[in-house]
Amino acid sequence: MTSPGVGISAPGLLFAVLGAAALCVPFMTLAANRIVAGEGVMAWGVASLPVVLPGLAAIAAGLIMGLPAGRNSLRIAGAALGVGGLLWLLTQGASGLLAEAGDYARVSPSVSFWCLLVVFMLLMADALAAMAPGPLMRGGVLAAVLAVLGAILWSGVLSDLSVMREFASRADAFGREFLRHLGLAFGSLAAAAVIGFPLGVLCHRLASLRGATLPVLSFLQTIPSLAMFGLMIPILGWVGANLPGARALGIAGIGFAPAFLALVLYSLLPVVGNTVAGLASAPPAALEAARGMGMTPLQRLLRVEFPLGLPIILTGLRIVLVQNIGLAVIAGLIGGGGFGTFVFQGLNQTATDLILLGALPTVVLALTAAIVMDILVELTRKTPKDSA
Amino acid sequence: MKIGWILRPLLVAALLALVLRPEWFTPLLAPLAPANGPVIYTRASLLSLSLSHLALVAMASAAATVVAVTLAILVTRPAGAAFRPLSRTITNMGQTFPPVAVLALAVPALGFGAGPTLVALFLYGLLPIFENAVTGLTNLPPATMEAARGIGLSRWQRLWRVELPLALPVTLTGIRLSVVIALGTATIGSTVAARTLGEVIIAGLLTNNTAFVVQGGLAVGLFAVLIYDAMVQLETRLARRMGG
Predict the structure, then answer these.
(1) Which A residues, 296 through 325, put their C-beta within 8 Å of a C-beta on chain B?
(2) Is the ipTM of this complex over 0.90?
(3) What domains, with CATH codes, occur in chain A?
(4) Which among B86, B98, B188 has CB closest to A122?
(5) What global pTM score does this model have?
(6) I want to staple A162 with a disulfide (CB 3.0 to 4.6 A). Which of A60, A77, A108, A188 is the partner?
């Protein structure tokens, strides 16, 4: 195809075509209230022409700047410019459309906005991937993106949007469910680590235990999440009713406890499996040397096998964390709290923006967790190489 | 291994009984139902719910397989190489999207019913299949490829007779991952009014009827475990044939 440095980037061309096509569908939706379906408004119709022109120009310029192959900084700048144009249209459109509509009217971004946002995000990711940034730079980019996102939400320029209205009327509940979600995801990760690491070490040492444990854990992993959460209810209900003191600890059939236990069960396979794989990844020569130095089995485990296996073990924790952030949504169905509460309330009321209020933060949280954990894995992988 | 030969027919029998003759389980489930409440879900037959659940998964997974394998073939050809880094980014990032969130986000775009569930299952199912198919198509033994070129096979013949068969076991693993996720996500599809076994669980959760929850949960769980197991068997058999 194209040699690096010259010509047109094939993905860039795809983005430009997709982006141009996305402009031909409604950019925003104006609805009479929060429940009814809205009417689509095209990008050039959200406000008067002099107001929308700069936004449209920025989007077009952003797409064109994504075209040259190999010019990565230019392409990233194009992506940023394009997102800026999208935000400009969104904020101008929101106030403009609402000014002419009734009191209960809601405006929300529509297909065109989301498609263009995805296109620009992919353009940025494509250009960034080509630059092959190190872990620290990736962390910096993530922090910058999150800071910009936080600043935009904080500044209130989007507060006219329907999803932000839903947020404003539930700010307290949002904070509470956010903490609950984190508690479910990270708490179950911690519990799974406390149970899984020793179990993994034992499995590493005893082949017979390994043969019995791993199939059982992968069997657990197969059970669909809703079924797993549901099956925890009678079990924990029984424990809460029959075990003295269990109810005082808050263990009951419905709520936090069954959700937490289900998440822990799902987490065990990646933790145990990757601990076993990580410990087994130590090269025989290193183990031989450790034995020759007169290390006890415990010393070998802590100073040789564990440090060498750390990247693989951390990869297991990454899988668990991302998986649990997503699965914790189901907790909303069994009264366990978390962002799932909003998602399922929204589905029941057919209130789209309430669904978004639950789903979007979950997605951001999962992506952030994945990127941070990837950086950690890479950092631990590097250390032994540098110090060796 | 021997346990499997005893356990498998037992689980199949249990599943068949649960789906075809749920009333047999009344004595077992009665203690879990609320006083004077129904014990067995009768609003729809478990058989029809199972069939529509499985049909949803089968359709989504079949479509995902065709599209994902086609895309994998495209990006592993020289002409599609420019899209490789992008496709890797999309699969890495896409798989961190929670399946439930994909389902929830499909509703505003597509409305309620089987449609959004099917689309969510399809989109999410693409990723593991694509990832594994690309892995399979890029890690081919060089000697075999050289031999295929040496005996004068055209590009198309190489793809069809050498590359795809060699990549099949890895691709099948991806399909299995995708099917297991689809079975689970389809269950949640009941919250957006798709007809699946999740309906029974949700009905149980809404009316505090644990008997319903256990019934639906067991049926879905057994389906998932048995399908997973069958696909593992298929993979090992294929891998053995490739090795031998």
Answers:
(1) 322, 325
(2) no
(3) 10-155 (1.20.140), 171-387 (1.10.3720.10)
(4) B86
(5) 0.87
(6) A108
